[in-house]
Predict the 3D structure of the following.
Amino acid sequence: MPRQRFIGVVLLTMAMMLGLVGAPQLPVHARPAATGACPAVQNTPFFTIVYGEVTVNGAPAPAGTVVEARSPRVHTVGCCVVSEVGYYGAMYVYGEDNSVSPPIPGMRSGETIAFYVNGAAATASPPRTWVNDRDLHLVNLSAVYTPIQAAFTASPTSGVVPLAVQFTDTSTGSPSGWDWGFGDGGTSIQQHPNHTYTAPGAYTVTLTVSGPGGPDSATQTDYITVYLWGDLDHDCDVDVADIMLVASRWNTHSGDPGYDPAYDLDHDGDIDVADIMQVAAAWGDTC
């Protein structure tokens, strides 16, 4: 850590210990999806302070890296965002406060602080046992993880309305959160959602995953195509042209060279008058 920054941290700590200044009141805020912002941290009068180097996969952690301290009860009890490449701190790590109602969760004396870097467990050197000493401690952190990369598939990717589609997350790394946009206003936070399209059109699908090294997004433009029932030429108009397409496969059967299941609208293995009647029932429908 540069000498000027270290001196500044020490002076702040000494002033705080002498009662000249109090612990900074960090705002409590909700956990955002993106790397670069801290989860909610509740301050208490009890704390220790840590600082040091931080590496990811053996390299200095970039600016925007989130460093967290968590209690054995998995509460976030301290957090800071790296602003200087390869360094974090000073990070206040708070103890629990049972003097208020409801009690504020935090560390307890003698417990080992767990450190996380961008959501991945980090190795602390040396390990740090929490005590309410209001003192400054050097703790270097290292984390190893594979950055996540968003990817997905879907089946089917085309068909007539209503079209039920099964989406499958194929992201690499270790994603822990999923945010889908299906292009028709529908969304999901499931890993492998099913979504039904109820109107014809071409839909662009986006998946954003969060986790160590994230977030990351993948978008597939016009990935899902939904057609009108009976619109066999896909021109958004059910008309005589569609009937002529069925007629062109007239009297073919499943297994015949000319048989095409796309024109067997009643799925009985025969293209016949019943399929023409299916198109006629949708006559005049448009997108």
Q: What stands out?
A: The chain has three helices and 17 strands. The CA atoms of residues 29 and 40 lie 5 Å apart. The two ends are 63 Å apart (CA to CA). Residues 3-17 form the longest helix (15 residues).
